[in-house]
Design goal:
Chain lengths: ~300, ~260
């Protein structure tokens, strides 16, 4: 306000540019806030009605999903569990690999090797997710199918998935979260003051001892942030896993054909109508809720660590 | 000082050090007495910190470093092939310019070194933590909050904590790289007091910009300029009757 008032009096050109720039920055910032706000409202407005029409228990805690039957049932329990299980397993596989890669890049690799690996990892982030899906479909599914055939040879009860199952989806997700977790935790590791490393070495610690006892603990907030974003990426991924996960609503076991929250929306929205369509929005709301919860929990951990 | 005279802890012979093509230390030959405080003085970039860092081979971490000549700790060449750098660094502790406690509790900071070297028994660790903190003159201040984060201590306390951390591995030599330059005057004085006390048990080598500090704490002083050691001797003599004109000019504050 002060600046503006001065501008009007002085008619100073620089001053006017400054004020205009400030206004533009402010407007741009509000676009993001407006987007978040309207998405939240929209998801609640569209997702909540079905919850009350069908009943929270019949949607969230029932495992029968028959949206197009004569007497439709909309239990999404298995779908929710699949998303939780799939994300958890993908993080359990992907995060250790990513973390060790980050340590390697930041601490161990000679510069020439970093110059090769880093762009390769960053390129992973740029590959469209549908391409991951295609690769999974062509390469991973046949391999997993072979394993499945060996494992369940002669089984009467097992429903063969042809390799399109939770395991394939988890492996694809684990690779997809690598670039996010690697690059963010690498920056976190690089941001650890070099004096800490030197101090540790000066006490007679080896490089590896220093990495695990000083550098990684010091980089913990950044690494947790990397994992949050990895979880967010895994739980929100739809395209790639819809191609490799089979698509039946099943309890999440490695060799079951499964449907995730995301893939349920993608595969059914085309033909859903009426209550079915509304339930798909409820699924979207559940997904939205998950991402919010993950962010809140991990942010709280971050704040506690800082203190 | 009378009894310990002549007891040489560290000596270097024609020590030359290069960072890539930069000749950072030129033909340094010096003898450093045990159980005394030796001050290394000189203007910024004169090589005194670099020299300090050759004594525990922490310069090895810089990939472009090349060293010629000999550095002897108790008559043994620390750059000889087959020397265990871990053991060397246990014997030659180091305290840095910026207080840099690890982001963990006070207790864990002190116990870090001993744990690295394989001490797991809680009673032994307790003893080491207490005696190190006592030696560093900070025990009374932190006794009641050993499990609290070390990052919550004041700058001066953090620096004494770092000294205690270095003492916890029971070194024989303590290298201090401008240990008070990031501290306020009161905390600096406390650290200086500590240095004078530490020499009873340890050989202390301190790099300092502050000539009054060198006079206050040190028994011997070495003056560095442009990578050369210009002169070394008893602190009293160096400051009262410098032999070299450059030393005199520096002490008189004509440059620096």
């Amino acid at each position: 306000m002060n600046v503006k008032a001065k501008c009007i009096i002085s008619k100073d050109r620089v001053c006017i540019v400054e004020t205009a720039a400030q206004a533009i920055f402010t407007i741009c910032a509000f676009v993001a806030i407006f987007a978040v706000g309207s998405i939240t409202l929209y998801m609640i407005a569209n997702g909540v009605p079905a919850l009350f029409k069908i009943g929270i228990r019949d949607i969230l805690f029932s495992a029968t999903w028959k949206p197009t039957a004569q007497e439709p049932e909309f239990g999404i329990l298995y779908i929710v569990l699949t998303s939780i299980m799939g994300t958890a397993l993908a993080v359990m596989i992907g995060v250790p690999i990513a973390l060790l890669t980050a340590v390697f890049l930041a601490e161990i690799a000679p510069k020439t090797l970093t110059a090769v690996i880093k762009p390769a990892v960053e390129l992973l982030a740029g590959i469209p997710s549908v391409v991951y899906g295609l690769l999974g479909l062509m390469v991973l599914n046949p391999l997993v199918y072979k394993w499945e055939q060996n494992l369940y040879r002669g089984s009467e009860t097992h429903q063969f998935t042809g390799g399109a199952n939770l395991l394939s989806a988890v492996l694809v997700l684990a690779v997809m979260i690598l670039p996010t977790v690697v690059s963010i935790s690498e920056s976190a590791i690089r941001a650890v003051p070099s004096e800490l490393k030197t101090s540790s070495m000066a006490l007679g610690a080896s490089h590896v001892q220093t990495i695990f006892r000083v550098i990684l603990p010091a980089a913990k907030p950044g690494i947790i942030m990397a994992i949050v974003l990895g979880v967010g990426r895994a739980i929100g991924e739809a395209m790639a896993i819809s191609l490799v996960s089979g698509g039946c609503v099943n309890f999440p076991m490695p060799f079951h054909s499964v449907r995730f929250l995301t893939t349920a929306i993608v595969s059914e929205m085309g033909y859903a109508s009426g209550l079915h369509r509304q339930v798909l929005f409820t699924i979207g709301l559940v997904l939205f809720g998950f991402i919010m919860i993950v962010n809140l929990i991990l942010n709280n951990i971050l704040i506690r660590e800082d203190r | 000082m009378i009894t310990k005279t002549g007891n040489i802890k560290i000596k270097t012979e024609r020590l030359n050090l290069y960072y890539g093509n930069t000749h950072a230390l030129k033909d340094i030959t010096i003898k450093i007495r045990a159980n005394a405080v030796t001050a290394l003085i000189g203007p910024s970039g004169c090589g005194k910190s670099t020299f300090l860092k050759t004594l525990n081979r922490i310069n090895d971490l810089v990939s472009s470093v090349r060293i010629e000549g000999g550095v002897y700790l108790d008559e043994k060449d620390i750059y000889a092939p087959g020397v265990d750098v871990t053991k060397l660094r246990r014997k030659v502790g180091m305290v840095f310019q910026q207080p840099n406690p690890f982001p963990m509790s006070i207790y864990d900071n002190i116990a870090y070194g001993p744990r690295i070297h394989g001490i797991k028994d809680r009673n032994s660790l307790d003893e080491i933590v207490e005696s190190s903190l006592r030696d560093a003159g900070i025990w009374e201040e932190v006794e009641s909050r050993l499990e609290g984060s070390a990052l919550r201590l004041s700058g001066g306390q953090q620096q004494r904590l770092c000294i205690a951390r270095a003492l916890a591995v029971q070194p024989e030599v303590l290298l201090m790289d401008e240990p008070t330059s990031a501290l306020d005057p009161a905390a600096s004085l406390k650290t200086e007091e500590l240095m004078r006390w530490l020499k009873k048990k340890y050989t202390v080598i301190v790099v300092t910009h502050n000539m009054q500090q060198a006079v206050r704490v040190s028994d011997e002083t070495a003056f560095f300029l442009n990578g050369e050691m210009i002169e070394a001797g008893m602190t009293r003599e160096i400051f009262s009757y410098p032999r070299d004109r450059r030393t005199r000019d520096y002490i008189d504050g004509r440059f620096g």
